[in-house]
TrEMBL record, chain B:
GO terms for biological process: transmembrane transport. Belongs to the binding-protein-dependent transport system permease family. Keywords: Cell membrane, Membrane, Transmembrane, Transmembrane helix, Transport. This is Carbohydrate ABC transporter permease. Gene3D superfamilies: MetI-like. It comes from Paenibacillus montanisoli.
Length: 517, 305, 303
């Protein structure tokens, strides 16, 4: 009794104080709101009158993108603003947030209603959840009205393929149709061991075993961060097996529009890949601390691994330089096992997107700006910097970096196939791979192109399997545990949830395919 | 003073026994070993930060530099942003530490004061906020939409200004100060604020120094609120600058399907190590001044102040 | 009753005024934003705002309890925290007492500073060091083991060692800060106690045992009580940096925070729900422990 009253009194005192605080802060917000209202309404007006030639009201667009603020950005943006002064009259306020924190910043600030006008997001980030919760504006109408160049600089197919839940929520940023995958290899070791250039997976295996036999101080392969099971399956051009959900727990293949359940129909290709990796691990081909020591590329750079799996069709100069700094005699080469002559199934999905949040106050102007930015001349400015200072053109579709660096980051806001230039410093071979990946004619359209699985109805089950999977995926895909036993344990826990998800997925797929016809 | 009585009855021989000598020895051995275990890794970090990335990668840590290079520092400290960030960090740390120690100690004094009937309630109010942090979204709305602190240094200083943990640490110290001092002062007609600022504060220097040290370290290393609430680079503290530099090195982990030259050759591991040194540098300068308050000889410590 | 309370406040108005800044601060920055926890019970949609979004009751809590893995992670969280509190306290006290006893001032100051140094190493750097010690191929410990003629241990594949490893790292990193707190507490002990003990002929061991340690008791109890409320929170920074995605070690190292981070990276509401659960459990724990403390030693309890 006594205590309760004590508490009540304290609470009362506290409330009194609090009411004072609220009064104060209300006062403040009261002052500022009309101003922003006015700003919003003027923008609306000016946007509807955009057909008229006179300059629009000045607007500052708030853009949120990941990464570190690039050197010389100020100079480039100043030039851009100068070019736009008589037409769009847009000022750019770009915020860069480090990659590690980007997802958190995006999620929290948008949830609190922060009025960013353009934000970066991606399927590998938090895009799906954000769209499901209604954070991003559907863009069709805006694009039709203000974004002709945005649309024309990307093929129709790319738009269709990158619809999410049936609508265009984001502008796809990208030019390739398959995620490039390959391996860095120590050329000097290969030559020392007398092995001819590696063409096939079998050659590769022979190389790895030869390293194991003759070079005890170095791990034959360190796939850290980029596991070999996914790598083998991604390059599969025969049955076209693809992960549908939960790291191949649900998969599809042969482009037949079915979501298979790995617990019910264990795919031979998948299992073969798992067994290979397991064998390599027990034979000490794979670095024994692969799960603990992070990036394989780092181990390769340190000269501690004779090969490493790597993203992209590329052997970056940075990797070669780092390797040389450890061992001047070392040489690196890049191999990949895709076959240019076989067509691959692709869903033409891109990896990066630009979105307009619903909380933006300048949606029209944001799209107008992007439209401007996707025009070739302006794209060149924003993507490569000031011509003659940061870069120079090599023909119409390539560029060369000059000494003063303006880092390349169109993938975060404007990247498109129409305006893109290849880096002239690439080797002939790597350029060949990139061009192959870029040309849609090398790919068969996936039946599920444009389909997004909406897991709202089976959210709990789906998260459950995701969490269970995360506890076995590493050991299983890097070969550090007995696959049969681990798989059985996983199956026992995850199978009931998976079944539910599979049924829901198949239902949505059937519906999607029916609507498509 | 219940502890005194234990000795009045038994008198023990004056000369040090063998066991005491052994104890003495083991005391020095323990402290020496622990110091070594703690200082060697730090030494490795310092040496590593001055080592060329190549040799750092292939040789790992070593006690003596193999191939000296300042590249890590050059990468970390290039550009004007460093100076701006250093300045911001110093402002945040100084202002934040001062205000935080002030309001925390005032609250702790009240929570420890026997005159206050509701000190239990106050303690609970404080402890509760330690258990239930503010929801992140709620906090963002408060700071940005209601208090309009976005893009100000206050948005970094104010969150966490009052530290419940520190408050309780002070409470436990204040409780050890004999209550008679307080009573005597009250009888002499001293006001509460006089008792606190003129009597309690001076004799509580050890705990104030300790709390001040912890608070300033927290502000010095603060990046999270800066990341959330400050978009303008000219207001970024040091840690957020370093953090985004670091994560950019790692960019390949996050971006897929991109073009070639986004990763420049930076000394990733060396930069991590240099970061430690850059961050700790100014603290090492201030530390001895703080240290003297809690490392003393046994003879000092009379409560009379 | 109300009048009595007003009386109490009026009588001590100057003291309550001293507490006022902190109280206002807590209300504005801690209690008001707590409405954000509502998100755990809602299907949050930004267009509808926090209030307007649909109520879904305890739906977001399902994730955690849907299979029995929550028992494993909860156990790991509690167990690792217990080890850390227990050994952390013991090591900090021993170190502080020894430092306090050392008469050679320069040695004392330098060693005290050294012991504090690990506190400044970021987790990423600590992770490098741990790897340099424990790596299978060229880790320092395995090198020593093989030279002694025994087989090396593949540490990163042996979960049974990890509670000890994690606790060692925590203690090593935290002992300096802990020692500072106890040193501060000791420097408040009146020299008179020691003096009279010396007159009574107590040697230094006895002085430590009968004077120093009993006087440190309130601080020990206070720090433990402070730690108890957070006992359901795992040390995410350490575990995520050092164990990371290495699932081989999950049986002993996966704590609630890392599990939720992996499973719910993009789901606001569910992660908020788990945080709420952790907090509530912490509240229950601290209330119980504080109640027990009150029974045993009234002056040391929190409230």
């Amino acid at each position: 009794m006594q205590k309760r009253k004590k508490f009540f009194v304290m609470l009362l005192a506290v409330l009194l104080v609090f009411s004072g605080v609220v009064a104060c802060s209300k006062d403040e917000s009261g002052k500022s709101e009309p101003a922003s209202d006015a700003a919003a309404s003027t923008t609306n007006n000016s946007a509807t009158e955009q057909a008229e030639p006179e300059p629009l009201e000045p607007v500052t667009l708030k853009i949120l993108v990941p990464g570190d603020k690039p050197n010389n950005l100020g100079e480039v943006l100043a030039e851009a603003e100068k070019r736009m002064a008589d037409t769009l009259n847009v000022k750019l306020d770009m915020t860069f947030v480090g990659w590690a924190d980007y997802g958190k910043k995006l999620q929290v600030s948008l949830a609190a209603g922060e009025d960013y006008d353009l934000v970066f997001d991606a399927p590998w980030n938090i895009q799906t959840a954000m769209i499901q919760a209604g954070y991003y504006e559907p863009l069709e109408a805006l694009l039709d009205k203000y974004g002709p160049t945005i649309k024309s600089s990307r093929p129709e197919q790319m738009w269709e393929a990158n619809k999410l839940f049936g609508k265009v929520y984001g502008i796809p940023l990208g030019v390739y149709n398959v995620s490039g995958r390959g391996y860095y290899i120590r050329k000097d070791l290969r030559e020392k061991l007398g092995i001819p250039p590696i063409q096939t997976w079998d050659d590769f295996e022979k190389f790895l075993y030869a390293v194991k036999e003759n070079e005890p101080k170095i791990s034959p392969i360190h796939p850290g961060g980029l596991d070999l099971v996914s790598f083998q399956l991604l390059a599969d051009q025969d049955t076209h097996i693809k992960n549908f959900w939960g790291g191949y727990t649900l998969y599809y293949k042969n482009n037949d529009g079915k979501a298979y359940n790995m617990f019910e129909e264990r795919d031979p290709k998948f299992w073969e890949a798992i067994l290979t990796v397991r064998k390599w691990f027990t034979d000490k081909i794979i670095d024994q601390d692969v799960l603990a020591s992070g990036s394989g590329v780092e181990a390769f750079k340190a000269g501690k691994a004779a090969s490493a799996s790597a993203n992209g069709f590329d052997l970056p100069k940075a990797v070669v330089d780092a390797l040389k700094s450890v061992d001047p005699a070392a040489e690196a080469e890049f191999v990949t096992f895709f076959d240019k002559n076989k067509k691959m199934v692709s869903d033409f999905k891109q990896w990066n997107f630009m979105h307009v949040p619903v909380s933006s106050k300048n949606k029209e102007r944001a799209i107008m700006f992007l439209n401007w930015a996707n025009e070739k001349e302006n794209y060149d400015l924003l993507a490569y910097g000031i011509e003659g200072k940061h870069w120079e053109a090599v023909g119409t579709d390539a560029y060369k970096e000059l000494d003063e660096l303006y880092p390349w980051f169109p993938y975060a806001w404007i990247w498109n196939p129409e305006s893109n230039r290849e880096n002239a410093a690439q080797s002939e071979e790597i350029r060949g791979w990139n061009l192959w990946s870029k040309d849609p004619n090398n790919f068969i359209e996936d039946k599920l192109t444009g389909f997004t699985f909406d897991d709202t109805k089976v959210k709990a089950e789906s998260e459950q399997v995701a969490a269970l999977f995360s506890a076995i995926s590493g050991p299983l895909f890097y070969g550090t545990v007995d696959p049969e036993k681990t798989w059985e344990e996983y199956k026992e826990k995850a199978a009931p949830f998976t079944k539910k998800v599979q049924e829901e997925a198949q239902r949505q797929i059937d519906e999607f395919l029916q609507n498509k016809q | 003073m219940p502890y005194k009585s234990a000795f009045t009855t038994k008198r023990i021989a004056e000369d040090a026994t063998i066991s005491e000598k052994l104890f003495h020895l083991s005391m020095y051995v323990w402290v020496m070993l622990l110091s070594l275990i703690c200082v060697i890794p730090f030494w490795l970090v310092v040496i590593g930060s001055f080592t060329a990335e190549g040799s750092l990668r292939s040789q790992g840590f070593s006690l003596f530099p193999q191939e000296i290079s300042l590249n890590s520092y050059r990468f970390l400290l290039s550009g004007e942003q460093v100076f701006v960030s250093y300045k911001n960090t110093i402002i945040i740390t100084v202002v934040g530490t001062f205000l935080s120690v002030l309001i925390t100690s005032m609250m702790a004094y009240v929570m420890a004061n026997r005159k206050i009937k509701y000190r239990g309630v106050l303690s609970f109010i404080v402890y509760f906020t330690m258990l239930f942090g503010p929801g992140l979204v709620g906090f963002y709305i408060l700071v940005v939409n209601w208090l309009h602190l976005k893009d100000t240094l206050w948005a970094i200083i104010l969150p966490g200004l009052f530290g419940p943990w520190n408050a309780f640490l002070m409470v436990s110290y204040f409780r050890t100060i004999p209550y008679e001092i307080n009573e005597a002062a009250t009888i002499d007609g001293a006001s509460e604020s006089y008792i606190f600022f003129r009597i309690y504060m001076p004799i509580s220097k050890p705990v104030i120094a300790t709390v001040g040290l912890f608070v300033s370290l927290r502000y010095w290393n603060e990046w999270f609120y800066a990341m959330l609430f400050v978009d303008k680079e000219e207001l970024h503290p040091l840690q957020i600058m370093i953090r985004s530099l670091m994560s950019n090195i790692d960019v390949q982990r996050y971006v897929q399907g991109t073009d070639v030259n986004i990763v420049t050759n930076v000394p990733a591991m060396g930069v991590q190590l240099a970061t430690v040194c850059v961050t700790i540098g100014p603290i090492l300068l201030v530390y001895p001044y703080v240290q003297k308050y809690f490392v003393k000889g046994l003879t000092i410590g009379s409560i009379k102040g | 009753m109300l009048t009595r309370s007003i009386q109490e406040i009026r009588r001590n108005i100057h003291l309550y005024l001293l507490a006022l800044p902190a109280l206002i601060y807590l209300i504005v920055f801690a209690y008001v934003p707590m409405f954000g926890h509502l998100i755990a019970f809602k299907n949050f949609r930004p267009t509808e705002g926090l209030w307007g979004s649909e109520w879904v009751g305890f739906k977001h809590f399902y994730f955690f309890f849907l299979n029995d893995y929550w028992i494993t992670v909860t156990w790991n969280t509690l167990y690792l925290n217990f080890l850390n509190i227990f050994f952390g306290t013991i090591f900090a006290i021993i170190t502080a007492v020894f430092l306090n006893e050392i008469r050679f001032v320069l040695f004392k100051k330098i060693s005290q500073s050294f012991i504090f140094l690990p506190f400044f190493l970021s987790w990423v750097v600590v992770a490098y060091m741990v790897f340099a010690l424990l790596s299978t191929r060229d880790g320092l410990i395995n090198n020593v083991l093989t030279q002694l003629g025994t087989d090396g241990v593949s540490w990163y594949a042996s979960p049974q060692y990890w509670p000890a490893i994690i606790t060692t790292i925590q203690v090593w990193k935290g002992v300096g800060a802990g020692a500072i707190i106890y040193l501060a507490a000791m420097s408040g002990i009146s020299g008179e106690y020691y003096e009279s003990a010396r007159i009574d002929g107590a040697n230094r061991l006895k002085q430590i045992w009968f004077i120093t340690l009993p006087l440190l008791r309130p601080t020990v109890i206070m720090l433990t009580l402070l730690a108890v409320g957070g006992i359901f929170y795992g040390d995410f920074g350490l575990i995520y940096s050092i164990v990371g995605e290495n699932a081989l070690l999950f049986p002993t190292t996966d704590v609630i925070d890392t599990y939720v981070y992996r499973g719910l990276r993009s789901n606001f509401s569910s992660s908020a729900a788990i945080v709420l659960w952790q907090s509530c459990m912490g509240l229950i724990c601290i209330c119980t422990v504080n109640w027990m403390t009150r029974k045993l030693d009234k002056d040391s309890s929190l409230w």
